[in-house]
Structure formats: C-alpha cells, structure tokens
Specification:
alpha/beta, Rossmann fold, pyruvate-formate lyase- activating enzyme, six-stranded parallel β-sheet, 14 helices
C-alpha cells in the first residue's frame, strides 16, 4: 500500500492547498502514513513570509526527508528559493506555487517514468493557481477553508509575498459556489474564505460580471443551504467599504469576528511600510463594525521594531491597541527580507529592542483578551463544538471566543446555544 505524508507551514491558503493535495492522494488509493511510519511520498508545503519561516521550512524539509522515500517541496519557500530548496539532502522535487495543485499528477507521472525533474516553477497566473477540482472533505477539521483568491499587488516594503504569490487574481465564483455546496452536503456548517488579499476579490473581473467584489460573493454563499457560518481569513482595512457595512447590517451568516491586519499604529511607520491607511482610519472601521453589531471582535497582526521605529512611534501603536481593544494581537519582531525595500532602510533595530517591544505588545494583548472574555460571561453565544480539550468539548463562538463545553456528552460538529458562567482569561466555560 502506498502512503503519503503532508507537512504544512503558514497561512490558510497553504492549508487549503494541502487539503486539495490530500484529497488527490486519497482518491488515488494512497493512505495517510501513520506517525513513525516511513511514507512512500512526503510533501512539505512551505512558508517564506519571514526569515524565521525560511528556517522552519528548511528544518521541516530535513526532518521529513528522513520519514519518506520520495520528498517533494512546494509553497512559498520553494517559489522564492527553488535552488536552495533543491540542494537540501533528501529533496527529490521542488514545485512552485504556480503548479502546486498539479503536484500529485506530476509526481505520479515522473515516478512512473522513474525520472524526477528536480525543479518545476510555472508562471503565477489565474490559470495556474486554481484547481478546477473542488475540495469536498477536510481531514480532522470542523470548518472548511475555501481558497477564493491568490496574489497581492500591495508591495509592502517588508514583504516578499507579491514575488512568491504573484499579482492579484480571483477564482471563478461558480467554482467557489460549487465547492461550498458540496462541502455543505458533506455536513460542514462553517466555512472560511481564504486568500492572500481577500478584500480585493473580483477586482479584475469585467464590469458586466455579477461578482464585482467580495460582498457579491458573500451574498451568493449565504443562499447555500446547510452553511450556517461564514468567516473571512486575514483581511485588509480596505475591505470595509460602505457596501460592506450595508451587507454587515443585513447578514445572518457572516461571523462577527475579523482578523484585520494593522502592522503598526503609527502613521509614520505605516507610511514607511507602504501601508496606505492611517491609525484613525483603522480605528473608525472597528468602531463602525461594533456600532452595527456590538458583539464584534477583532484580532490583528503587528510588526514591532520596524526600521527606524522610535519609542514614540511604538507608543502610538500601543495606544491604538488600547483604543481598539483587540481579542488577540499576533505580534512579530520585524524580520529582514532580502529583495524588499525595508531591508535597505537605515536604523535597523537590535533584537533586544524588538524582543522588549514584543513583550509589551503581548502584555496588552493578554490583558484585553481576559477583559473581552469577561464581558461575555452570562451572555448568549453560539458555539461550534470541535474536539475534546481542557476536560470538555472545545469550540469557538460566532465571534471567535474560545469556549469549553463541560458537558462531554455533546456531539462535536454541532452548533450549540450556550451561556458561559466563568472565564479563566483564556477560555469561557459552559456547564
């Protein structure tokens, strides 16, 4: 029996693409390799968003090479540095993002010829980025991720994503709706729309298209029977147009939680980052969302220690974080990336300064997380039960609060109306 193992790093787009590959292997008679078992084929789906991501990718490649007979490397690290990836001992095949969805068929074809083409990098276009075959089931997951978009045109000064994911391109909406419909029939009640720049979905479609933006797509998905909750993956502030706010007032299925990328609360740092908004603009978006639906929660990403970030500029970010009141702040020390504008900027900060600022930002995040959880004790929530954890059944509420359902007789993959009675600052608890 042929077996396979897929190891995934990075974003929800990578997770989706790994699920698509998993489906291809399973449908072709492969079985997933058990822990400790040598797999016939191993795949490492890599990330390259930071230098740390590159290091993690290389480490996993070396580790996985020892656990399989044939190893293929794909993803953003493979796209950015294919020769470097190919030179790692044990790597047999390197495939870029442009033909990642064809990895299984390419691998099978080359194995049948007993001739592996070591590096295969295709152009990053709409035709090469989206598999026509829908994903219909996820391994050990309660919610399903749907890739709706790829690529980015923003060229933030610290980021290499436009170079490894290409320019903006949107998936055919009819293919998305077909995939969501099949997932709903397979029992998935919650889906997550994922992309590199989800807020720009549909921007390149023709004027005559009925799907001109993300809101048009969301309205169509809401009509699909069986889908009860829709989430958006990480999203930029530009998604929140007047049209979006009007939709948010009427929607019954879009969850009141958004992961809105901030990166900095200082307008001068945002300008150096080539982020085209201000702290005030960001704050007004959050205020508008909460005015429409007061239970709305927001999580974010923040980069500390960007080149030249002064004490005053960092303080502005701390101040904005306090004003917003984030459920969670994913905090990253600035990581230099060769080929980006920020790499050549003066006044690069020391690791010690970046570490100190990370700690201060995480302290704000932890304090607000506990405060927000406390606000929902005694309030009605709807929780999608997922798995056993912390002595009960774990799940997320509609606004992404982590909840422990203490009644172990409850059935996973169902949505329950609950009222939490306490919090420990990390979870809400329901008797």
């Amino acid at each position: 029996m042929k077996t396979f193992r897929i190891v995934t790093l990075g974003c929800k787009v990578n997770q989706y693409e790994s699920e698509a590959l998993t489906q291809s292997f399973l449908e072709s008679g492969y079985e997933m390799a058990k822990e400790g078992e040598t797999a016939t084929v191993g795949i490492v789906n890599t990330c390259s968003v930071t230098n740390i991501s590159d290091r993690k990718s290389r480490k996993l490649i070396r580790q996985t090479a020892k656990e399989c007979e044939v190893l293929a490397v794909c993803g953003c690290y493979a796209q950015a540095k294919p020769e470097e990836a190919a030179a790692i001992e044990g790597v047999d095949l390197v495939i870029g993002n442009g033909n990642k969805h064809r990895l299984f068929s390419m691998l099978e074809e080359q194995l049948s010829r007993n001739e592996l083409e070591k590096i295969s990098i295709f152009p990053l276009t709409a035709e090469t980025s989206f598999d026509k075959k829908p994903v219909t089931r996820y391994q050990e997951k309660t919610r399903a991720i749907i890739k709706v978009q790829d690529g980015c045109n923003s060229f933030c000064s610290y980021c290499i994503i436009p170079y490894v994911r290409g320019r903006l391109r949107s998936r055919n909406p009819l293919e998305i709706l077909e995939e969501v419909t099949r997932l709903a029939k397979n029992g998935y009640q919650e889906i997550v729309l994922a992309g590199i720049h989800v807020c720009h979905y549909g921007k390149e479609f023709e004027e005559s298209s009925p799907y001109r933006d993300l809101v048009d797509l969301l309205r169509s998905i809401e009509k699909i029977s069986g889908i009860e909750r829709i989430r958006l993956s990480s999203i930029e502030p530009f998604a929140f147009t007047e049209k979006f706010f009007e939709y948010y007032k009427e929607t019954k299925k879009l969850c009141p939680h958004f992961h809105i990328s901030l990166q900095s609360g200082s307008d001068t740092v945002l300008k150096r980052m080539n982020r085209h908004y201000t702290g005030e603009y960001y704050l007004n978006i959050v205020k508008t969302l909460r005015n429409i639906r007061p239970q709305t929660t927001v999580t974010t990403d923040v980069i500390v220690g960007f080149p030249g970030e002064s004490k005053e500029e960092f303080q502005e970010t701390l101040q904005l974080a306090e004003q917003v009141g984030f459920l969670k702040i994913h905090t990253f020390p600035y990581s230099r990336r060769s080929g980006t504008a920020a790499d050549g900027m003066p006044n690069q900060l020391s690791n010690a300064v970046k570490s100190e600022r990370c700690k201060k930002m995480l302290d704000v995040s932890d304090r607000w997380e506990e405060k927000i959880l406390s606000q929902f004790v005694g309030k009605t929530l709807f929780v999608l039960a997922e798995e056993e954890k912390e002595g009960g059944i774990f799940g997320f509420s509609e606004n992404y609060l982590p909840v422990i359902l203490e009644d172990k007789t409850l059935t996973p993959h169902q949505i329950y109306r609950v009222i939490p009675y306490r919090t420990d600052g990390k979870f809400l608890y329901v008797k």
